[in-house]
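Reminder: ligand-aware prediction takes two inputs, not one.
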Amino acid sequence: MKYGFIGVGNMSSAIIRGMCAGDKFNNEDILGYNRTAAKVEKLSAEYGVTTCYSTQELVEKSDVIVLGVKPQMLPSVLPEVKKYMKDGQLIVSIAAGKEISYLKEELGENVHVIRVMPNVNSRVLSSTSCYTASEDSTEEEIKAVEEMFGAVGSIIKLTEDQFGIFSAVGGASPAFTYMYIDALARGGVKAGMPKDLALKIAADSVMGSAKMVLESGKHPYALVDEVCSPGGTTIEGVCTLHEKAFMDAAEKAVTAVIEKDNRLK
Ligand SMILES: NC(=O)C1=CN([C@@H]2O[C@H](COP(=O)(O)OP(=O)(O)OC[C@H]3O[C@@H](n4cnc5c(N)ncnc54)[C@H](OP(=O)(O)O)[C@@H]3O)[C@@H](O)[C@H]2O)C=CC1
Ligand SMILES: O=C(O)[C@@H]1CCC=N1
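Here is what comes back for the chain with NDP:
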């Protein structure tokens, strides 16, 4: 099976790096075409993936074609893809906002399409992804996508009406978490700790806290209470976060992402 990526930017290269890090794929069976060829050439040099120099070359050589360009680029990319597609090829779109109905309208109603929303943690085999498949998708096609994204993290099936929400809570939220980790470390630096050490401690603590939420079965706020010793130190920080509307800001950030996702339709 040949996996071809059109648009090898931040997201596709994270998936490719993740796919190459495991042992499930032959690296040369992963193909990439990017407007700026140097991005794919770098991955070819690092991992031995195959560089293509046109949409035509990529489409002709691939079984699974991953649309990795920004949603705004799809109107110019899809006609090119359509021109060179043949029966039996599968389209995988990772574009935010753009629905299966739009992709089928542009590529042809008989084209099989699976939408996936991954995140950049694919690069370290820790993506949180979801997919929804067009009704005509075959079991083999769904299996291929589950294997591809399962190899770079977790993947769940979701109805398309939930995609925008997933895009915020699963796709965009790593950015918020990276900001939070940096902010924690910055606080440590302010108090005198070297930044690299503070970052490592903050990131490790976030990873452990996520594990705790997933594995303890407890409500996150019950866990907050467990950390706050009466009259202790943590409660001072928790009250400060409340005062600065931390929860409200995070919730509004998710809503803002969903609203933008809806505007891309
Ligand atoms: N970043 C993320 O965390 C996530 C992104 N996504 C989705 O992934 C997609 C890509 O996003 P992202 O990787 O962040 O964006 P990037 O801008 O990093 O990547 C897009 C790539 O597409 C290339 N490109 C643009 N036009 C063409 C074209 N006509 N032919 C070939 N290549 C082209 C660009 O090339 P050039 O180098 O020339 O600019 C660029 O490398 C989006 O649809 C986004 O919604 C989904 C989930 C998470
Ligand atoms: O910022 C974006 O548009 C993409 C979609 C979800 C995460 N990143």
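The beta strands are 3-6, 30-33, 50-51, 64-67, 90-93, 112-117, 127-133, 153-157. The two ends are 31 Å apart (CA to CA). We will return to this case in the review session.
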